[in-house]
Write a structure and sequence with these properties.
With 450 residues, this protein is α/β, with parallel strands linked by helices. The protein is built from 16 helices and 17 strands. The longest helix is centred in the last third of the chain and has 21 residues. It is elongated and about 80 Å long.
Length: 450
């Protein structure tokens, strides 16, 4: 059964066509401007299989951007903000409070802009063969050559774009895609949209993206370059880069299994976390322990009074809990001005700690009263008892936290060794003598600034 086409209204009065498929955690798939037609796309067997796979474990949402497909065609505004309005209309119509966002190719800049502005709403961000600046895409020699065909022959242009995007060996899918392109937008509409895309620039917003991000790219793809994909991933906090073999810019062609495996694994992490973090650890299980502590909380209460200090500490609790939830941490206890949490992975624990400090730094930029937090990490085999953890591994993590300075993340040598080669930056702080431990402990500072 084909999904039912519905409509959402943007703030500037444009009707946006969309459909949903499947049930569960929502995944919103943005259209690749300026060629989208949610009805005709499903007539391409490979594309339909793409939909079915994405909707196996979640609710897939697809929509046509303004000027495309079944959405309003009579539009003149194709700006970055207009693309954001289209997305806002669809998620607002569905009442989605939190969702994963999938952005292929030209939709990447709008997705980055939205994720930077609404970190609380994007559980995970997936960027497929995308970029931050439209000029990086447009200035490609291949794109410039193809663009020259647009004014001369619309049919040859669409056939060429289809083969470049999908690969010259794509055959029938490329021909179907070219036909879909001609049906999805007028020649004049495509020209106007591509002129607007050339002006997209969200490079300054990359460091503001707080959601876990997956940058997917094929090594032999014509555009953007692999270096461009690496640069994009390196400038987004909590981003990982997955380089796959192949040249097609269509994820459902060539080695589609590798693409969907990467997406499923990435989204599954988010879905497990949203369902309530990790299950309680088994007795003797290896865990990474994280402690946080707000510096000067007692003095803060004396200076601000109970009510205002409690309001500030609630913000601390919100930020910590969001970071724990986003990275699979299990909250074990809180003392009001600090947390104890555990992770099955040192990588996740470090990612969570970094996300916390970046969120506190962002808060402090505009806050009258900053929230200064120290974080300590250790790993080992604690004793599990009644939903709590005890033992030397836990005690050492607490002491490391107490040894840290405000805004600092300190980790034991065990955590540093577990995370070796995972892309984290450690600074060796030497050995420290900690209360209750006979032997000095070598500590490492985790560098979290962008």
């Amino acid at each position: 059964m084909e999904p039912r086409i519905q409509y959402a209204q943007t703030k500037d009065g444009v009707s946006i066509a969309f459909y949903t498929l499947g049930e569960g955690m929502p995944l919103v798939a943005m259209p690749n401007a300026p060629f989208s037609h949610i009805q005709l796309q499903r007539q391409i067997p490979e594309w339909q299989r793409d939909d079915e796979r994405l909707a196996e474990r979640r609710m897939l949402v697809r929509y046509d951007g303004r000027g495309n497909g079944l959405s309003d065609r009579d539009v003149t505004d194709y700006s970055l903000e207009a693309h954001v309005l289209d997305l806002e209309a669809v998620v607002g119509r569905l009442g989605l409070e939190r969702f994963a966002l999938y952005a292929p190719l030209n939709s990447g800049p709008a997705a980055i802009a939205y994720a930077a502005r609404h970190p609380e709403r994007i559980s995970h961000l997936i960027l497929w063969s995308s970029y931050a600046r439209g000029s990086d895409w447009i200035r490609s020699s291949q794109i410039q050559t193809i663009r020259a065909l647009m004014d001369k022959d619309w049919t040859i242009y669409t056939e060429t774009v289809a083969h470049v995007l999908m690969g010259w060996s794509a055959g029938a899918p490329a021909r179907q895609f070219a036909a879909m392109m001609r049906e999805s937008v007028t020649q004049e509409g495509a020209q106007a949209a591509l002129r607007a895309i050339a002006e997209f620039d969200v490079a300054s917003s990359l460091s503001e993206v707080r959601s876990p991000t997956l940058v997917l790219h094929r090594r032999q793809a014509p555009v953007p370059s692999v270096d461009g994909a690496r640069s994009l991933a390196s400038r987004i906090p909590n981003a990982r880069l997955a380089l796959l073999e192949g040249s097609s810019l269509a994820p459902f062609l060539e080695d589609a299994d590798a693409v969907f495996k990467a997406i499923d694994e990435f989204l599954s992490e988010g879905e497990e976390m949203a369902a309530g973090a990790e299950p309680p650890p088994a007795a003797g299980a290896f865990r990474t322990i994280l402690f946080t502590d707000v510096e000067g909380s007692t003095a803060l209460t004396q200076r601000l009074g109970d009510a205002k200090a409690r309001e500030l500490l609630r913000e601390h609790e919100r930020i910590v809990r969001e970071a724990l939830k986003a990275h699979g941490g299990s909250e074990l206890k809180t003392t009001g001005d600090g947390f104890m949490a555990s992770f099955s992975s040192a990588t996740r624990a470090l990612e969570s700690a970094i996300a916390m400090q970046r969120a506190f730094a962002q808060h402090n930029e505009s806050a009258q009263e900053p929230i200064l937090v120290r974080v300590g990490l250790n790993a080992g085999e604690p004793i599990a008892e009644e939903d709590d953890l005890y033992g030397t591994a836990v005690n050492l993590a607490a002491r490391i936290c107490g040894h840290a300075e405000a805004g600092q993340i300190l980790a034991s040598n065990v955590v540093q060794e577990l995370a070796a080669g995972k892309g984290f930056v450690f600074a060796d702080k030497g050995e420290a003598t900690l209360k209750g431990f006979d032997k000095p402990v070598r500590l490492y500072e985790v560098r979290w600034q962008a």
